[in-house]
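Handover notes (outgoing to incoming on-call)

Open items:
1. Phosphoribosyltransferase: sequence verified, structure written out, both below. Nothing else pending on this one.
2. Nothing else urgent.
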Amino acid sequence: MMVGVVHAVRQFFAQVADIIYPRWCVGCGTPDVSLCDSCTWLWHRGPWWRAESGARYLLAVDDQGDDLSIFPVWARAWYSGSVASALVRWKNMNDCRVDAAFAQLVADIVGDLQIEDAFPAAQWPNVVVVPVASHNSRRRAGRFVAGVIGRSFAQCIGVDFVDALRAKKSRRGGGNVAERGRKSRAQRAVKSFSGYDVILVDDVLTTGATLLGAQRAVSQAGGRVVGAVVLAVTDRP
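Phosphoribosyltransferase structure tokens:
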């Protein structure tokens, strides 16, 4: 009985909030919902896949001259259409209802990822989930999307969430090679990661420069990155 009352009260206040603060799907604009079923389905229609082979900053060369990934990166959707629209709009707003919608999305899809097989190098008693650093202005404005993704992911797989990477102050450029190089050096750890195996989390994978920067920061703080998870992957180099 009490559960039903609580649910009814929550629904009432949600309806009131929608009247005072109207919302639309961040992916397609459907009214009265933060992330509609059609846009949510875009993350459900296919399996997780290894995406690091298209990210040049995450590739090394072995003794035979073949490409070798630094660590596995698992992705669930392509960064295009409504997926791209949803992530861009989410990153540029401070709305706890959208945060909750994406946290639920992560919870719904993470069960399809076979965690121990996905990160074979991980020593599980020592694993923590760490979001890549966001610009300080975004963090202050409540637009830290990697944190929302990471917290939900960590809760679902039953490990600690550690928000301990910060962005270094640097001049922001236009996405060229020099800018990507800066991204690979633009993060620092604010605590020791000694003894920890780290799974990094971000929203979008492009060249891997941001993930590489996070990996370097974790390594400098004594930790080891065993893989990463992203919600989407671009098809651009």
